[in-house]
Structure formats: C-alpha cells, structure tokens
C-alpha cells in the first residue's frame, strides 16, 4: 500500500481540515453519556443484557443514514483485531476501556469519522462528535440531534432531579464531557503553563494529556475538559469551557510573540534542528517524535517554516503511534522495529509534501 493511499484511507476529517483558531486548537469534542432505562448499567449487566443492547444498535441504527452525518456502520469489538482497535483509540474514535474490556462492545461510526457512538463502554451509549479547531457549540448541536434521534427508539435512564443517570457519579446530570485539544508549546517553553494549569483546575476544569485521563501531554498537546456535569446546562458548560479556551489562546499567542521577539535565533535553531531530525533520522522514539513535531508545528505557525502544511503535523501525531505503524507496515512490530519504521514513515510523508510543493511551483511557472 502506498503512503498516499494509506493516508487517504486512514485520515479522519479533523486531521485534514482546519477550523477556527486551528493554529492552537487542534480539535473540539463533545461526548454525551446515556443509559437505557430497562437494562442494568454495563458495570453490573449480565452478558445477555449487554448482547441485547448491542443487538438494539445493530437493528435500529446500523447502516442507517442520519441527516448530514450520513451512514453509520457498527463495528463490533469482538470482530476487530487488537491492532485495529488500537488504531481506533489513537484516532480518538473509541476509548481504551472499550478497546480492552468490552466483550459485548461496539462503535457506530460515521463515514467521515466526525461522529462515533460507543456501545457498552462504561455506559450503554456514549455519543461523540469530533470537529477540527474550536467548534464546541457546533459539536454540541450535532450531538444533541443524534441524542434526540436515538431517544426516539429507546427510553433513557433519567431522574427529574438528578438528570441523566450514569455508571460514574461524576457524569450524572447532563452526562456531558466537552473537551478541546490544544497545542501550547510557548506556554510550556516559558514555563507559564505551570501556574495556568492549577488556575484552570480551580475553575472546575481539568487538564490532561492527548489521550485523556492518565495520559502524558506529549508534544505539548493538552486536553482541557469540564469536570462538572450536574447543576449546569449543556450550553453553560460549553460556554464556560469556550471562555477559558479563549483566554488560553490569547496567552499562547502572546507567549509565542514574546519568544520570537526576544529569542528569534534560538527559536529558529530549535525549529530547524527538529525538522532535520524528522526529515533525516533512521531511528526515532515516540517521545522525541512528539517533541520535534511540536517544534516544527510552532515553526510553521510563526512562519519560520513556510513550505509544510500544519495538517501534516496533525497526521503524523496520529500516524506515528504504535497501532498505526503496525497497520501501515502490515503486522506486529517490536518496540525497536517501531522506532525504525516510525522514522521511515515520517521521511516518506515529508517527501510527499516536498514533491507536492515542487509540482505546485512547476505549475505556477
């Protein structure tokens, strides 16, 4: 399989498109947790109940078109290979918990992969919308329409006082998790992030790494999300998060400007060294890859590097993860072999970009 074909087949919409403030905000996500009233929640349900819930989604929602989203296809976890499930986790389409523990789990996935509906994860239903850039309200609108569509066929577990009932008490109420994935290299380099994160936590928000709870902020990528789901409306939760994210965007842009104005030579040296590592390395580990990708993306955003698309960096963040590497190269790889293949894939992708730029220059001349 050629790399270009692999990219075209494997990329989700949010990887290849730009949205509002996409120089800093990589993606926006809304997730709604719901349960079906007549069944025990997945944490207590029997295998028979779990299978019945999965059957409901296969019968009523799989291969059905929904408005602008298009066809939804049900992927059953038991039908997927471990590498395939890992790729879905790396693309943020399913959770690690669903991939590892859900014997009767599934995922309804839209063709453009902006919408995924996890079945029998911690809750019976987890509706997720993932858009590029800062588009939380747009995500919420789509998720709400899907929520209404599903509820036409099933009765949700709902309490007039507490709201939507969920397996974990921290999700009771709206059942809403809103999150934004942000690239904040200047705040990290200036060490301002160390005082910003505690301040964000005091506002009822949480800062995590790229893959959520317990994950590391590789490549200076942070996930900002709400903690409070009870006592606020969905709109209020999203507006509060939008407000904080807006302030973070402002602070990151100011930090970038200050870095460039006070340390231009050092910053350019860092960016081009990282680009050289990506372009010519024969062996590269995932942490070094993430650091170099962060530096190069910052260089692109500041105009230091002019002939590379920032979307390539979005792709490579995902494509250099273990699952994607093993899928592209056709099977399981030892860690040391992954480091070699990772370097190969990065070089191939950057060569594709340079060839594209050369063709564009030739066409213009």
From TrEMBL:
Give details on activation and inhibition.
Answer: Appears to be allosterically activated by the binding of pArg-containing polypeptides to the pArg-binding pocket localized in the C-terminal domain of McsB.
Single GO molecular-function term?
protein arginine kinase activity
Q: Which residues are in the Phosphagen kinase C-terminal domain? A: 24-255
Q: Does the keyword S-adenosyl-L-methionine apply?
A: no
CDD domains reported in the protein's UniProt record: bacterial_phosphagen_kinase (cd07930)
Instruction: Give the matching NCBIfam families.
Output: PRK01059.1-4, PRK01059.1-5
Q: Which family does it belong to?
A: Belongs to the ATP:guanido phosphotransferase family.
UniProt function note: Catalyzes the specific phosphorylation of arginine residues in a large number of proteins. Is part of the bacterial stress response system. Protein arginine phosphorylation has a physiologically important role and is involved in the regulation of many critical cellular processes, such as protein homeostasis, motility, competence, and stringent and stress responses, by regulating gene expression and protein activity.
Q: Which HAMAP family match?
A: Prot_Arg_kinase
**Descriptive protein name:** Protein-arginine kinase
